[in-house]
Design a protein that fits this description.
One of its GO terms (biological process) is translation. It holds the Pfam family Ribosomal_L30. GO terms for molecular function: structural constituent of ribosome. By secondary structure, this protein is of the alpha+beta class. About 30% of the residues lie in helices and about 25% in strands. It has a three-stranded antiparallel beta sheet with strand order 2-1-3, with no helix packed on it. The termini are close together.
């Protein structure tokens, strides 16, 4: 599996509770925080749900 780098670029303030929990489940804590994770189907689906809040790079 390939790895991707996910960076939070926008705040979760004034977002739905579901979006807040999705961002937290990805391991992101605050703006400009990045995590490197395996690009599984579950992770890709989570990123698509909050793609307006995060930036993704292939590693």
């Amino acid at each position: 599996m390939s790895k991707i780098k996910i960076t939070q670029i926008k705040s979760v303030i004034d977002r739905t509770e579901r979006q807040k929990k999705t961002v937290a489940a990805l391991g992101l804590k605050k703006i400009n925080h990045s995590v490197e994770v395996e690009a599984t189907a579950a992770i890709i689906g989570m990123v698509r749900k909050v793609n307006h809040l995060v930036a993704v790079e292939n590693i």
